[in-house]
Specification:
Elements lengths: L6 H19 L3 H8 L3 H9 L6 H10 L5 H14 L14 H9 L2 E6 L10 H11 L5 H14 L11 E7 L1 H4 L5 H15 L4 E6 L13 E5 L8 E4 L6 E3 L2 H17 L3 H18 L2
Parallel strand pairs: 1-2, 2-3
Antiparallel strand pairs: 1-4, 4-5, 5-6
Helix pairs in contact: 1-3, 1-5, 2-3, 4-5, 7-8, 10-12
Length: 288
């Protein structure tokens, strides 16, 4: 059973608070690192929430920042303790995108632009089983099964009965045409996509080929937003060996504007459903 405490989000909130305390003290990350005899990169990782934060780290940093209010220190120490708990995804072993899963689990809304494949949150088991080894060809069979299980578990967030994820997907036509696995798998996948797009909190729009050049041609990305005002929005860009998380207001704003252009260029939600249904029929016809 997943813990009610999301360690990824706890680390992120704690990091933001530690950064605020450092800036109030008027110190640079390099100056803090010198006082603690650690690397500057460690301070940066603690502040961006990409690294586990121990209670000792918090204690040492609070001492450097001369935080005298014990209630603040105790609160930060508790956050550090909570941040070291394990989320549900840790039960599946070492997942390379575990930071993203933690953010996705807590997000209130998620906007995705995808050009080549159906996003993981909307994949059928058959499609996932075909696409994962295609994108990660060296993956061992037991790791493949874990990846599929994690992907299916992530989908529970979309239809969480207490707090369903508001999901908006802009999908390039190529993701509908590329035959992943087989025409049967594609037909089932696109039928599922049509069904999911009819949910009130899920919107799917298609960018057809005839749109021509568009704002997303520089690459795919996702924008995560959160209910808690202390959690800033995050732009997530998946990479082969490492992922990129953009949290600066200006960066998020630029990608938000880009997404608005994509939405405007794409077919409407109703037109997209018809388009996807036609693509599913073309796969069915190809089956003979």
């Amino acid at each position: 059973m997943a813990s009610s405490v999301n360690p990824t989000v706890r680390r992120r909130r704690l990091g933001q608070e530690l950064r605020r305390l450092r800036e109030l003290k008027g110190m640079t990350a390099e100056e803090v690192a010198e006082k603690l005899l650690v690397s500057q990169s460690k301070i940066s990782r603690l502040e961006n929430g990409r690294r586990s934060i121990s209670q000792r780290d918090v204690r040492d940093l609070c001492a450097v920042y001369e935080v005298e209010d014990h209630r603040i220190v105790d609160s930060l120490m508790q956050m550090a303790k909570d941040s070291r708990q394990q989320g549900w995804w840790h039960a599946f072993g070492d997942i390379p995108y575990s930071v993203y899963i933690g953010l996705e689990t807590e997000a209130a809304s998620l906007r995705i632009y995808e050009s080549l494949l159906v996003p993981g949150l909307l994949q059928t088991p058959g499609y996932a089983e075909a696409v994962i080894p295609g994108t990660v060809p060296e993956l061992a069979p037991d790791h493949l099964e874990k990846r599929i299980q994690v992907r299916m578990r992530r989908q529970e967030r979309v239809n969480d009965p207490e707090r369903p994820l508001r999901l908006w997907v802009v999908l390039d036509e190529s993701a509908l045409r590329r035959v992943v696995g087989s025409h049967l798998i594609m037909r089932e996948q696109l039928d599922h996509l049509v069904e999911m797009s009819q949910l009130p909190h899920v919107t799917v729009q298609v960018l057809p080929y005839h749109t021509g050049a568009h704002a997303g041609m520089s690459g795919t990305f996702s924008i995560l937003e959160f209910d808690d005002a202390s959690d800033s929005s995050v732009v997530y860009i998946e990479g082969v060996t490492s992922d990129l998380y953009l949290e600066k207001t200006n960066d998020v704003h630029k990608y938000t504007i880009m997404y608005e252009h994509l939405r405007a260029q794409a077919l409407s939600a109703e037109q997209s459903r018809e388009f996807i249904a036609d693509a599913a029929k073309s796969h069915a016809d190809a089956m003979g």
